[in-house]
Backbone:
């Protein structure tokens, strides 16, 4: 028979006296009135339900250090590899854009910004755009 507590003040009648009470912080619950023995004082409390905050499943995860953990999924969390990495989130390896590069055999591949970007540069003694390199033998066409 305790009145419901809310963010607005509520009037409670006890022993023909009217008390105005309010739960703090906008909480909801029920008022509980306790009469203290040997005194003519009444203690009125706002009883609220307390919910346990579930633990963050990402605090103790098995994601790779190059992955991001997000709550959810069958295990309680999912792992996703960071940009420039590939894998299942539990094992992530750096993407090597030069692994499948179409550079000439006489060129050097250099990773550039981004997971799939690279540049091809012809080796010394060769010229071209890196995708096609031709031997730079100036004496072949000239009488040296």
Residues:
């Amino acid at each position: 028979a305790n009145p419901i507590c809310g963010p607005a003040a509520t009037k409670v009648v006890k022993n023909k006296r009217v008390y105005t009470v309010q739960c703090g912080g906008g909480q909801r619950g029920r008022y509980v009135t306790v009469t203290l023995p040997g005194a003519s004082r009444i203690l009125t409390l706002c009883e609220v339900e307390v919910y346990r905050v579930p633990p963050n499943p990402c605090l103790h995860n098995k994601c790779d250090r190059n992955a991001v953990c997000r709550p959810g999924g069958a295990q309680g969390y999912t792992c996703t590899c960071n940009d420039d990495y590939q894998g299942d989130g539990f094992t992530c390896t750096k993407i090597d854009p030069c692994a499948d590069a179409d550079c000439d055999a006489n060129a050097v591949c250099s990773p550039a910004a981004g997971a799939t970007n690279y540049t091809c540069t012809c080796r010394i003694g060769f010229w071209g755009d890196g995708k096609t390199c031709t031997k730079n033998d100036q004496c072949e066409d000239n009488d040296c």
The helical segments are 138-141. The chain has a mean pLDDT of 78. The longest strand covers residues 29-35.
